[in-house]
Write a structure and sequence with these properties.
By secondary structure, the chain is α/β, with parallel strands linked by helices. The protein has six helices and twelve strands. It has a single domain, classed as Vaccinia Virus protein VP39 (Rossmann fold, 3-Layer(aba) Sandwich). The longest helix is centred in the N-terminal third of the chain and has 10 residues.
Length: 236
């Protein structure tokens, strides 16, 4: 991977002529994303993210922290103990420059010998599974990182609305090549460079709830957004 997403974050942080990221998926057209959005303050965050930060407590792990905005809010405004991890070295460099005390390049799947009270997976963090078949191992790994009474806070979307209606019975026409309709392939371009395409996933709440129950979690729907999005809490 060229780490273009992280490069855009670091360019923005260091005023190195940042440009918009160009994103495209198997179910959506090319779209421009302003990197500035990743640097939003608590007041600029959507209600769902604000609610997740309000519920965060104890020792916190922010997985896929990106530019670190969620972690910064918890560290600076609530004086909480936050560890921020991302597989992007450029993003972590930007987080450190922004003043995060515990930011490190780390894949959550290889994190060992640590325990947390809250694990954050915001901005569809569970999507890093890539495929629905990877969810059980992913959830079990997260479970191993939780203290007794710990919680996972994650948001995602049910992307069923992206598919065309079937005229005859009001159902949805969903392409059959995917095992699960929430699985997509993501493409990112930045400053004329293309990232290697990668798997990503949006998981609907019912599917998440079933996976959570199968792997020893309680699953609670905390908030539903206006556009098929939701915030959920998983606890043991």
């Amino acid at each position: 991977m060229k780490d273009l997403f992280g490069k855009a974050i670091l360019d923005f942080q260091t005023n190195n002529s940042p440009e918009d990221l160009i994103t495209e998926t198997t179910i959506s057209e090319e779209d421009e994303m302003s990197v500035a959005y990743l640097f939003r303050s608590y007041d600029e965050m959507p209600q769902m993210e604000q609610k997740a930060l309000q519920l965060a407590k104890g020792k916190i792990l922010d997985v896929g922290c990106g530019a670190g905005s969620h972690s910064l809010s918890l560290q600076n405004e609530r004086n909480l103990d936050v560890t921020s991890i991302d597989i992007s070295s450029n993003a972590i460099q930007a987080c450190t420059l922004r003043g995060l005390k515990k930011a490190k390049v780390q894949d959550v799947l290889t994190l060992e010998n640590e325990k947390y009270d809250t694990i954050l997976l915001l901005m569809n963090g569970a999507g890093m599974c890539g495929k629905l078949k990877n969810i059980p191992n992913f959830l079990l790994k997260l479970k191993s990182l939780l203290n007794p009474g710990g919680q996972i806070l994650l948001d995602s979307s049910d992307i069923i609305y992206m598919f065309d209606d079937d005229d005859e019975d009001g159902g949805k026409w969903i392409p059959s090549q995917n095992e699960y309709y929430g699985e997509i392939i993501f493409n990112i371009s930045y400053k004329g460079e293309k990232e290697k395409p990668f798997d990503w996933m949006f998981i609907d709440y019912n599917t998440l709830q079933n996976a959570a129950l199968d792997n020893g979690f309680q699953c609670e729907l905390i908030l539903e957004g206006e556009h098929y999005d939701y915030l959920a809490k998983l606890s043991i």
